[in-house]
Design goal:
Order of helices and strands: HEHHEHHEHHEHH
Bound molecules: adenosine-5'-diphosphate
Strand order of the largest sheet: 2-3-1-4
Structural class: alpha+beta
Radius of gyration: 18 Å
Length: 169
């Protein structure tokens, strides 16, 4: 027979296991693909302990790029940015893990690579703001919208990695 606290604890454990983990949208932009740093970027997310649940390569149309960057419509660099995003292959990804949205942004570094800390992806691998090689969702709402824009639900894979019990308490 279980004591009440033990039963509650087990229930919480089950809920924690059943609760969907946080997901974020990460894209390697055309400059990152052309410069041959995609494996390095994937490696950084992978080694941290985050889990890849969706990935594809595509050349987004200008219209699609415009949808992705709709928040920046009023900015002077918007058109150039959309043209650039659709200028070549992009690696679109969904990464999963505890705190992946916020920590993914930390791995990426500041928008302007000149201001990104060394050790971050943009700090180590990029120089100018219009060629900063990677995109990452900036919050839970954006992550949800961007994942829905770039991926169909069936393109995302739910699985347990053997490493999880060594990554999470
Ligand atoms: P982030 O990608 O870090 O979330 P923003 O959402 O503010 O940054 O901007 C989207 C993208 O627009 C940036 O990654 C960058 O490539 C481009 N960008 C931002 N500011 C400028 C700028 N002043 N000039 C040119 N491009 C810019």
């Amino acid at each position: 027979l279980l004591t009440l606290p033990a039963a509650v604890y087990m229930l919480q454990e089950q809920e924690a296991l059943a609760a969907p983990m946080e997901r974020t949208f990460i894209a390697i932009k055309p400059d990152g693909v052309q410069r041959g740093v995609m494996s390095e970027i994937i490696t950084r997310f992978e080694r941290k302990g985050f889990k890849l649940v969706g990935i594809k390569i595509m050349i987004p149309s200008k219209d699609f790029a415009g949808k992705h960057y709709h928040d920046l419509k009023e900015r002077p660099f918007y058109k150039g940015l959309c043209n650039f995003l659709s200028s070549g292959p992009v690696i679109a990804m969904v990464w999963e893990g505890e705190g992946v949205i916020r920590y993914g942004r930390k791995l990426i570094g500041a928008t302007d690579p000149q201001k990104s800390e060394p050790g971050t992806i943009r700090g180590d691998l990029a120089v100018s703001v219009g060629r900063n090689i990677i995109h990452g969702s900036d919050g839970p709402e954006t992550a949800k919208d961007e994942i829905a824009l770039w991926f169909k639900p069936e393109e995302l894979v739910t699985y347990t990695s053997n490493a999880e019990k060594w990554i999470y308490e």
